[in-house]
Amino acid sequence: MKDKLPSTSRKRSILHIVLSVIVLLVLVARFLRADYHSVFLCLLTLLLFNIPQFANKFFKVTLPRELEVVILLFIFAAEILGEIGNFYNQITWWDTMLHTINGFLMAAIGFALIDILNNSPKFHINLSPVFVAVVAFCISMTIGVFWEFFEFGMDMLTGTDMQKDRFITSLASVTLNPDGLNDPVAFSQITSTDLHFQNGKELCTISGGYLDIGIIDTMKDLIVNCIGATVFSTIGYFYLIGRNKGVFASKFIPQYDIDPNEQ
Question: Which of 32, 50, 75, 177 is deepest in the core (most CB within 10 A)?
Answer without folding.
Answer: 75
